[in-house]
Amino acid sequence: MKKNYLIDYVAYMRHLAEEHTKLRHTPREPHFFRGELEEFVNGLRSGVSFPCLVTESNEVEYEGSKSNLIKKRTTSFIIVDSYENVGDFNETDEKMSLCEMIAEDILSRMMSDTDKPFRLAQIEGADGNYMLNDTDRYVGYRVTLTMVEPNVCIVNNNAWVKEEEDEPVTDTGNEQG
């Protein structure tokens, strides 16, 4: 069974970017990358095709008791699209709406997909925010969500070497009395 680690989450999000009809990420036409909010504000890397999915890092929190430990993963992703004319609010609103639509498609797929690394996780909450970078002429819609996994996803009994039982002492009949 796959675990819910950062590498699994990033691979899953890349897969969604490959499958979404508005993104269609490929190595030759990149519509997906790992990044952070600061990159949106300060300028995305070159070679990005729009619209694109930017997957941010995660914060993980564990809570509960020994018998009921849960893993909470809080993460964000941004759908980003470019626009041509600064000050054309119709165009920016249209692009922001497209970003919101794609983000909701991804969020919906995450909630319903049974073939994901965190398939037992439940989304505890999600928030969406519009973003605008007039300097670089792109807009975005950022979703921040928290996924909660039950204990069964965390416990890995195969991670530990099992102690071999002491070999039983057998009577060889050679005892001298």
Short description:
The protein is α+β, with helices and mostly antiparallel strands. Helix content is 25%, strand content 32%. The chain has one domain: STM4215-like (2-Layer Sandwich), CATH 3.30.2000.
Describe, in plain words, how this protein is organized in 3D.
The protein is of the alpha+beta class and 177 residues long. The protein has a single domain (6-155), classed as STM4215-like, CATH 3.30.2000. Helix content is 25%, strand content 32%. It is built from three helices and five strands. It has a five-stranded mixed beta sheet with strand order 1-2-3-5-4. Strand 1, helix 2 (37-42) and strand 2 form a beta-alpha-beta unit. The longest helix has 24 residues, at 89-112. The N and C termini lie far apart (58 Å). The relative contact order is 0.18.
